[in-house]
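Quick review question:
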């Protein structure tokens, strides 16, 4: 690791280079981030997306900001810009606050910020490997209970290594299961309106030779009804102290369908995704409201290999584009974390993470 991860890395000049997720799955391109404003823009325009990676970029963003800062007080103003770049994913705020706390007594901001950012991200990557292990153990238990030789897992949005270094969260157990020789197949929700499932999750799984099938967002419930889903694993952008989970819009509907059909519904998260200040997720987790044009327009590649954006709604019809929803703790079978698998409850979360 040491500053080199699958989705982002420090280049030979010690600037931050990231995979441009807006270009996938059609083109693999990277973007160099050399200023605070470039870091903020990369988070806002979804060049990087996924709660964990947003936090990772934010940590290195503080290091980049140190290159432009004249002391800690100046750095605080730039840190505010990074911290405010998106509202829902708590990993962003956690990473910025952690970095600023570590740097408050530093006599060499640039040197120390690089060191602390690398340490923070190395720890996140290690947590991802633990999530993979605990999640794969659950996969094996479900297969044993159902006396099955293969397993069908449904996921929503992208929570692989593009989203959380260095194995992901929701996809980490799937990668580990494949390494263990388990015959695993993934139902990949398209995840409108940005299509992170169809473009990013499917791309990742294909690169790893994991069997998968892309489905429309509204297909999962039917697949559960006919017995073609053995479990659901999703990631999260914020988890309240009582276990409510904010994740990509549509997650709540999957949880309801899973509950109605007795399908286990798990949420995989690093510890940085907890927000212990929030006790009621539905009431207090801020939900990002994004540009309506993300919903009204779609982009894809045409027969000439050119990526084009097209309008798919009446031009003058209004649209509303909530980025996330909240799944109540009561619908969650368990939280797969770096420390183990726990109930989504205030008691268990406080006992193990506070």
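Suggested answer, residue by residue:
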């Amino acid at each position: 690791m040491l500053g080199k991860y699958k989705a982002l890395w420090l280049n030979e000049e010690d600037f931050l280079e990231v995979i441009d997720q807006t270009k996938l799955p059609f083109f693999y391109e990277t973007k160099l981030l050399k200023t605070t404003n470039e870091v903020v823009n990369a988070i806002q325009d979804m060049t990087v997306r996924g709660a964990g990676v947003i936090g990772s970029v934010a940590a290195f963003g503080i290091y980049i900001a140190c290159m432009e800062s004249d002391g800690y007080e100046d750095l605080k103003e730039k840190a505010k810009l990074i911290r405010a770049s998106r509202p829902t994913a708590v990993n962003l705020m956690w990473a910025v606050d952690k970095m600023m706390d570590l740097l408050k007594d530093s006599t060499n901001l640039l040197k120390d910020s690089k060191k602390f950012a690398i340490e923070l991200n190395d720890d996140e990557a290690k947590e991802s490997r633990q999530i993979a292990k605990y999640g794969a153990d659950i996969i094996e238990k479900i297969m044993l209970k159902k006396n099955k030789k293969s397993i069908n897992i449904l996921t929503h949005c992208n929570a692989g290594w593009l989203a959380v270094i260095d194995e992901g969260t929701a996809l980490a157990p799937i990668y580990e299961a494949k390494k263990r020789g388990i015959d695993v197949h993934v139902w990949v929700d398209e995840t409108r309106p940005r299509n992170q499932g169809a473009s990013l999750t499917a791309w990742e799984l294909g690169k790893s030779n994991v069997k998968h099938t892309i489905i429309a967002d509204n297909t999962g419930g039917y697949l559960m009804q006919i017995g073609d889903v053995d479990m659901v694993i999703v990631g999260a952008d914020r988890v309240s102290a009582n276990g409510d989970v904010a994740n990509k819009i549509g997650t709540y509907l999957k949880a309801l369908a899973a509950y109605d059909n007795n399908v286990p519904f798990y949420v995989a998260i690093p510890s940085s995704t907890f927000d212990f200040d929030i006790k009621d997720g539905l009431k207090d987790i801020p939900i990002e409201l994004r540009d309506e044009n993300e919903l009204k327009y779609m982009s894809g590649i045409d027969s000439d290999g050119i990526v084009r954006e097209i309008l798919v709604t009446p031009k003058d019809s209004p649209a509303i584009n909530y980025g996330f929803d909240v799944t109540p703790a009561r619908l969650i079978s368990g939280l797969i974390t770096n420390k183990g698998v726990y109930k989504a409850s205030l008691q268990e979360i406080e006992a193990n993470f506070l």
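Why it works: The chain has twelve helices and 18 strands. The two ends are 28 Å apart (CA to CA).
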